[in-house]
Design goal:
The protein has 333 residues and is of the alpha/beta class. The protein contains 13 helices and nine strands. Strand 2, helix 4 and strand 3 form a beta-alpha-beta unit.
């Protein structure tokens, strides 16, 4: 058990008694135990120097902080050290599938990092052997957002505006948004067994994160059509051939390789790095923002389509979808 775990459990039990004024019922006890187990699971994955801080912070129901960095006890974990902000997608049981709350938290993390002089580079990765399986389809079935108002939008704008280097370490699944989010990174290191896919059409949807513009612009229309219109999985080696990955390395070496690049970048003059990245991006920012705007509008429309509902239902029911019914003619934007 991590340091302080027993004390943490005692604090939670006392908190529960104070909260309800009597011993916890069976149901309340189960909920409390769930909180305890979740916290301990997270703490067990943290660097040793953060463990005690994390225990105290969870027990006090606050966001833990240290002089060297910061840490968020949630599905997004951040840690700053030596000019590098490590950002971890931390929902391993669902292959780091993204919820709306995760998108908002991640957007806030990038926005804050952009304004902090101490942060020179972001090192982005996923917990549990996967980068991200993309959007959580279960969330789509709960209700549709208002037109143009999707949680992903905040992260898209934060990434477009971010002028510091982003280094990604990719293992396992990088599906849907797990692939398109990477198009905003400056370095992408992939494990040799990593699998990429842009299955939006297969789900009755359209690409996101500006990838309908950036991917054809970077790799050409024919290769982009192979990825987007067919929506088939592709390997890390193929991703590198297409220019979507910087380097393919052994699965055990991918994080260390990405971290080494992040440290190398953090040692360079930050002002020159930021100015150079802005110059490299300036020609594409306008078209990219326009692509994101149109994508988001069409994405929301597609979420409510019969094709998308059939695709989601088939996915959750683990059966082949039936798209035999002719689709409505798409609106022109």
């Amino acid at each position: 058990m991590p340091p302080g775990a027993a004390n943490y459990q005692s604090v939670l039990l006392a908190e529960e008694r104070d909260l309800i004024g009597r011993p916890a019922s069976a149901g309340q006890g189960a909920a409390l135990q769930g909180r305890f187990e979740e916290g301990i699971s997270l703490i067990g994955k943290l660097p040793r120097n953060f463990a005690n801080t994390a225990v105290r912070a969870i027990a006090e129901s606050r966001r833990p902080t240290t002089q060297r960095g910061r840490l968020t006890m949630s599905d997004i974990i951040t840690e700053q050290s030596g000019g590098v902000l490590r950002v971890e997608l931390n929902r391993p049981a669902r292959k780091n599938a993204m919820t709306g709350e995760m998108y908002v938290t991640l957007a806030d993390a990038f926005t804050q990092a952009a304004n902090e002089e101490a942060v020179r580079v972001v090192l982005w990765h996923g917990a549990g052997g996967d980068f991200s399986a993309g959007n959580d389809i279960g969330e789509f079935l709960k209700g549709m957002p208002a037109s143009g108002e999707i949680p992903q939008g905040r992260l898209m704008e934060a990434l477009i505006a971010f002028d510091k280097p982003i280094v990604a370490a990719v293992q396992g699944a990088a599906i849907g948004g797990g692939t398109t989010m990477l198009t905003h990174c400056d370095f992408v290191y992939a494990g040799e067994s990593a699998k990429f896919q842009m299955p939006f059409v297969n789900l009755g949807l359209v690409p996101e994160f500006g990838s309908s513009f950036s991917v054809p612009s970077n790799i050409g229309h024919l290769r982009a059509a192979e990825l987007i219109l067919l929506g088939d999985p592709f390997t890390a080696t193929r991703a590198m051939e297409l220019g979507l990955v910087t380097q393919v390395v052994g699965d055990r070496d991918v994080f260390a390789t990405a971290a080494a690049t992040a440290q190398k970048l953090a040692a360079k003059p930050s002002g020159a790095l930021r100015a150079s990245k802005r110059l490299m991006k300036q020609a594409a920012i306008g078209p990219l923002r326009q692509a994101v705007r149109v994508e988001n509008e069409v994405f929301v429309e597609r979420l409510g389509s019969a094709e998308a509902k059939e695709a989601f239902s088939a996915f959750l029911e683990k059966r082949p979808p039936n798209f035999a019914r002719p689709p409505a003619v798409a609106a022109t934007h």
